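Please, structure for the following, as tokens.
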Amino acid sequence: MPRKVIIAACLVFMVAIGPAMGQEPSLPQGLDGNATSSDTQGGPSLPSGLGGDEKQKDGDGPALPSGLGGEEAREDAQPEREKGWFGRKGRIPVQIAGFWDTRAGSRLQDDPHQKRLSLAETRLQLQAMRYWPGGSFDLKVDFLGDAAAEDRGLDLRRGEGPVDLRSAHVSLSPLPSMDLKVGRQVLTWGTGDQLFINDMFPKDWESFFIGRDTEYLKAPSNSAKASVYTDAANLDLVYTPRFNPDRYIDGQRVSYYHPRDGRSGRDNTLPADLPGDWIDDDEIALRLYKNVSGMELAAYAYDGYWKSPGGFDQQQGEALFPELSVYGASARGSWGPGIGNMEVGYYDSREDRDGDDPEIKNSQFRALAGYELEPLKNLTVGAQYYLEHMMDYEDYEDSLPPGSNKADENRHVLTLRLTKLYWMQTLELSLFTFYSPSDEDAYIRPRVVYDLTDQWRLEAGGNLFYGEDDHTFFGQFQDNTNAYVGLRYSF
């Protein structure tokens, strides 16, 4: 579906419901523009494809289980009033909040392609918010000192350098049932617990794998978002005028499997032919959703590019980001004593629809099913099954050069989340595991968080990788197995 068709469909929808927008309908939980979300931290989850009872200002539908959105919701959340208000004579023109976070981590074995030190940074985040009737402005900036990183200059698109602009956007409500948000923002939707199908917004896999806070898995986008709420259905439309890729693994901080040279790292980083033209290399995403008898139903469409490298040019030695369209649907709601979710998506690899180009990923069908419940007080258990099916598999096999590593037609992944709270919920023990029986690899994320006071928080955890082969998704990272500690002060 070309972008013009998607945009036209959205305009038709807006025009059709225009007469009904004079009076604001009741919105599903989390769509109220004045909603706030708590600062609770969810545990971590998965690549290629991430809770609580927070209300999400982004309109992500019903409350998500721990780890499915709590971290992302923090990007749009308004800090609570006790976190620092500044004004004169009882007026409150600006709200200030932030935190200071310092972390250190080390690999647990020798990696010939990386430093032993995996994480050594201190981070100061400052957030300033200005509110007025019918709108607001949010600015969130991280200032970072990183002893483990190579000096490659400032690159906000890739998240490199001493400054990371997390958000800088204006929010407006031009009509009672319409919200607009324009500028740099963190976006998220979908139902997976760290498994992504229809969430085609950028992720930061490097941060996830080295032990930064889970909120940094979601990277910011430079986008314009329009949300329309009606009794018939709700619509989110996101336009990104310049392609925002994932902050993907390129060997700078995490060693990986190079498509041509095998296991590589900072001695052989992965260059990329990244689409970078404004307007010509744009993206568009939409979500149409409705709550039916307590079940959140949604349909999705995306037109843009593979967010992480979806191909490789052997002659130039560069990663490619081929054109991609995604169409999907999801359902989520109460089922028995817990919450169940299902999501599917078709990945239309537009530059290799026949599946006979070995340098570009084939089209795929993806699906997941998950369930979460609380069998005991303060104990949360969640499990998921994820499938990645390659289309035109025989053509893919025939196109492979002799001696190439062959991917499976079906990649299966199982996840398990365990979260236990102690001591009046000031101590959190969590474990998130990914296991792929088809790839014979695994990724385990243990984590301990202790709230020393309302402002001080201590954290320790690890990223443990295992794999039979170097070329599978988790197997390529096994030399990056690491442990880390962190201390945060919030204000």
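Residues 18-90 have pLDDT under 50 and may be disordered. The chain has one domain: 3-490.
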